[in-house]
């Protein structure tokens, strides 16, 4: 099942040169794990809640490869180039399959909650 790495970033201009180096190097860290950008540094149109920043979404073939990418020595080496200069929240999350049914999920959660 497809997995995603999601970054909620709060960049502070001007960007530090380390951030540019991080951007130049990240794709090479993703390639061995089948990672690709879905969106990169885009400012979202917020409809609920509050968010003032940019979003990065990476797609991986599965959670094992997403974790392997994040934990890889190549990616761990460049994390400080971003993290030291851009406050962020980074998360990995599984996607849903093509047959996902929100109503069926709700029914299962409702039944589990009822005990």
From TrEMBL:
Superkingdom of this protein's organism:
Bacteria
Residue stretches making up the DUF1330 domain:
3-96
Signal peptide as annotated in the record: none
Q: Supply the Gene3D superfamilies for this chain.
A: 3.30.70.100
User: What Pfam family is a match for this entry?
Assistant: DUF1330
- Identify this protein by name: DUF1330 domain-containing protein
Q: Which organism is it from?
A: Actinomadura montaniterrae
């Amino acid at each position: 099942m497809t997995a995603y790495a999601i970054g909620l970033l709060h960049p502070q201009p001007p960007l530090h040169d380390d951030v540019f180096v991080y951007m130049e190097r990240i794709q090479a860290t993703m390639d061995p794990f089948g990672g690709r950008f879905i969106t990169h540094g885009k400012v979202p149109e917020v409809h609920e809640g509050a968010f003032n920043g940019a979003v990065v979404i990476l797609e991986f073939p599965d959670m094992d490869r997403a974790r392997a990418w994040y934990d890889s020595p190549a990616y761990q080496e460049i994390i400080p180039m971003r993290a030291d200069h851009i406050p962020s929240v980074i998360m990995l999350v599984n996607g849903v399959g093509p047959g996902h049914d929100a109503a069926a999920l709700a029914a299962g959660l409702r039944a589990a909650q009822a005990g």
